[in-house]
Amino acid sequence: MVNRIILSRQGRVKTTMPDALYFIALVLPSPLYEEVTRLKEYFRDRYNSKAALRSPPHITLHMPFKWKEKREQELILALKKFCTGRKGLEIELKNFGCFPPRVIFIDVVKTPELDRLQQDLAGFCRSELNLIHANWRNHPFNPHVTLAFRDLKKAAFADAWPEFQSRGFEAKVQIDAITLLKHNGQQWQKREEFVLG
Prior knowledge:
Elements: E1 4-7, E2 13-16, E3 19-27, H1 32-47, E4 58-68, H2 72-83, E5 89-99, E6 103-108, H3 112-129, E7 144-148, H4 154-165, E8 170-175, E9 177-183, E10 188-195
Antiparallel strand pairs: 1-2, 3-4, 3-9, 5-6, 5-8, 6-7, 9-10
């Protein structure tokens, strides 16, 4: 992150820390992590869509949000508190899905446990961290693992979706942690992992 330099009315120089970008997710463990990464690389090599490679294979629980870097420890402690006493959960990935005209993903079976975790986290973020997004109502929780999105051209989507529409994918994995990811200006990196339990 680059610090901003601001001149006050008195001519003094003040340095401010900009807000950083974060999001909260379930990051897939190995060897599924590597398998999904290979699919993302396939989209990069075959369809020239590489944006999905800027984050680890994951299921988003809370969309990206801005948070002051100087308050990062406060965010970490709050999420640690949220995860205390919660159990890990089994995630099932099944086949492929899409959001036309640009997004192709691995579908995730929406279980009551996964739905409750996401709803509890959203409520916690609103009440404890004052993170409020107006468009939550317009985008209900639809768990998935993105393989290609915003830089997938419409013509490439038209070629890729028929290829993946009838293709199968099945995996079950135990996930025992929630991950806070932080944007470094180029890509999303794991900032902190919170064990469920």
